[in-house]
Amino acid sequence: MRTLLSLFLTTALTAQLPVVPSPQGVEPGPGRIAVGSYASDHAPFARPLAAFTATLARLGAPTGVAAERVTMRFQPFPDDGKAHAAESYRIRIGNGEANVFAADPLGFARATATLCQMLEIEDGVATWPCVTIDDAPKLPFRCFMVDMGRNPHSPKVLQQVVDLCWFYKVRFLQMHLTDDQLSSWPSRAFPKLRDERAGWTWDDYVALEAYAIARGVTLVPEIDVPGHSTILRDRYPEVFGKSPQELATLPAATEGVKQLVDELLAVFQSTPYVHLGGDESGVGGDPLRDFLNRIARHVKARGRRAIVWEGVVQSPLRDRSVRQVTAAGDGRVRMTNSSPDPFRGAQTTPLPTPAPSWRVHCRADSLHVSARISCRPSATIVATMR
After folding, report:
1. Is there a contact between 159 and 123 (Cβ–Cβ < 8 Å)?
2. Do 130 and 149 fall within a single domain?
């Protein structure tokens, strides 16, 4: 009975807090506290703190003013011998103090996202509710995908998408950079791939990477091969061949894809993944498997892991490659394991009940978020913006 009552009270208190997703632990207190400045002496928190105060300024909250107001202090969890989960944080506001603890810079970003959602500004004064929050993401893989290989999306729009991911604690932002219709990757090794319609420069991506890191968002680049590769093959047939089959089997094509992977990792240095596509190529069998394994080994040699779409589910991959599933036609999918380690395989199997879907708008661009995915351990993939 006590357990059920505790669960009910925790759920009720969490529901009253205007934070999405709901924190795992919430203890509300009375009143609110006015904060005038923000400080941390922990060097790894410098960049995310600067991003947080810049956001507060954009929202109209004064920073570094009014000595009579509280200073919100950010620091690592105390060294008390307790283990703290990755991305975890604690917020303690009350009794004339505002303290935030985080396990790592990602935890710092999750805390500041919660703080932004609880912020109120009135007459130039920023206030937060008195509350204690202990929180960490339940799902280790939370991802939003932007399709930049069919329609162009500007650096400004991607920056807004990063803000959206940060605000809702989505860790990964996957960028589908190439497809049959468009290349949004300004390759230096293959400059004819650069498309003026896309509007991106190398420096734009470097700036976006820094912007995302400061907000706890990891950019995951995708070059789709050997299918969805018309742009590569039309502009460099001497390298990538004239068909997906040739792209998968020609030694020059393999070397060309490796060069593209190296370019991506020169810019997206924080990513643990490189997405290789691999779907709907019409190749299949040993040629597809062997090609993707060759590229996956190259990715592994660079200290990262390869991700491929579900289209190669019948072609066993080596080197701990991750398979990712896109939304089924009804938005319902089931994740399955295809190796001893969790989160390896995926196939489009309907779930017993419809998965929820949401639609939000970002200026003229429609962001369609869909497909909650169930797996062991759980992961959430949200897609797609086109």
Report:
1. no
2. no
CA distance 327 to 306: 20
Comparing 12-21, 157-166, 187-196, 203-212, the range with the smallest average pLDDT is 12-21
Give residue 53's domain range. Answer: 17-135
Tell me phi and psi for residue 121, to 5 degrees: -125, 125
Which residue among 91, 109, 135 closes a domain?
135
Across 64-91, b (16+ Cβ under 10 Å) vs e yields eeeeebbebbbebbeeeeeebeebbbbb
Number of structural domains, the chain?
Answer: 2
Token pair of 115, please?
Answer: 């703080």
**Angle at CA of residue 281, ends 279 and 286, nearest 5°:** 95
Burial of 152 (0-12, 13-18, 19+ CB in 10 A): middle
- From the CB of residue 129, how many other CB atoms can be counted at a distance below 10 Å? 20
Pairing of strands 125-135, 365-370: unpaired
Contact call for residues 382 and 144 (beta carbons, < 8 A): yes
Pairwise CA distance, residues 330 & 356, whole Å: 10
- CB-based contacts of 41, cutoff 8 Å, min separation 6: 75
Residues 218 and 163 in one domain: yes
Residues 152 and 127 in one domain: no
pLDDT band of 65, cuts 50, 70, 90:
low
Where among 135, 167, 197 does a domain terminate? 135
- Say yes or no: 268 and 360 in one domain: yes
Q: Of 151, 21, 143, 136, which is closest to residue 86 (Cα–Cα)?
A: 136
This prediction has a pTM of: 0.81
* Three-class SS state of 313: coil
Tokens encoding 224: 């789709």
Q: Would you call the peptide bond into 377 cis, given omega within 30 degrees of 0 as the criterion?
A: yes
- Condensed to tens digits (0 to 9), the pLDDT of residues 305-330 reads 999 886 555 555 555 556 555 443 33
Q: Which one, of 213, 322, 201, 211, lies nearest residue 270 by Cα? A: 213
What contacts 268, CB < 8 A, 6 or more positions away? 205, 209, 219, 220, 221
Same domain, 176 and 203: yes
Indicate whether 189 and 126 sit together in one domain. Answer: no
**Distance separating alpha carbons of residues 40 and 19, to the nearest angstrom:** 24
Nearest to 333 by CA among 354, 314, 319: 354
